[in-house]
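Key result, reporting period 2: structure in, sequence out.
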């Protein structure tokens, strides 16, 4: 299976430096984010996607809908692709990082999940959903934290404490091959 992994476009919360893991909040693509998605759509227009899978957070679906203008394939929401549940929804990202600074991999704050909890959720998606599906070409639109886990999985050699060193720009995408025998 060919898998394309893309981070959503730039959002109003990116501009404000705020955390978001609540799908009911008004977090949406900015004009910049829309242009990023349109540019990515042009680059991917000739890829024969069979399905697009997104997180429950609207910014991923909004990005996917722009990409899908060239494909007209089903868009499916999968809960396991959601961004890390930080426990800081609507609050500054800097406050979240300060709160987990003593143990960034294992710290759970305000009922949120740790980085390692999030990693296990993404690995569950890979093992229990992705490896079972029989699509030839799939696009996953998700979040930087989520895509970091995918990159570590597919590229290997990334220790848990190095996950935060991986940076993925808005609407940046990676392409991998998943053999069902893995």
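The corresponding designed sequence is given below.
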């Amino acid at each position: 299976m060919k898998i394309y992994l893309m981070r959503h476009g730039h959002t109003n919360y990116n501009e404000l430096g705020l955390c978001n893991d609540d799908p009911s909040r008004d977090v949406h693509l900015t004009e910049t984010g829309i242009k990023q998605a349109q540019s990515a759509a042009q680059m991917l227009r000739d890829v024969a996607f069979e399905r697009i899978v997104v997180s429950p957070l609207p910014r991923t679906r909004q990005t996917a809908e722009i990409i899908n203008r060239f494909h007209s394939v089903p868009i499916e929401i999968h809960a396991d692709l959601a961004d890390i549940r930080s426990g800081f929804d609507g609050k500054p990202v800097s406050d979240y990082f300060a709160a987990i600074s003593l143990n960034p991999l294992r710290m759970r704050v305000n009922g949120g999940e740790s980085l390692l909890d999030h990693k296990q959720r993404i690995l569950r998606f890979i093992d229990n959903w992705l490896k079972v599906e029989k699509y030839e070409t799939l696009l996953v639109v998700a979040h930087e934290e989520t895509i970091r886990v995918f990159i570590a999985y597919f590229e290997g050699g990334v220790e848990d404490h190095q996950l935060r060193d991986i940076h993925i720009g808005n609407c940046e995408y990676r392409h991998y091959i998943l053999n069902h025998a893995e």
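The radius of gyration is 16 Å. Helices lie at 12-16, 31-43, 58-67, 93-99, 115-130, 144-155. This case is discussed further under Risks and Mitigation.
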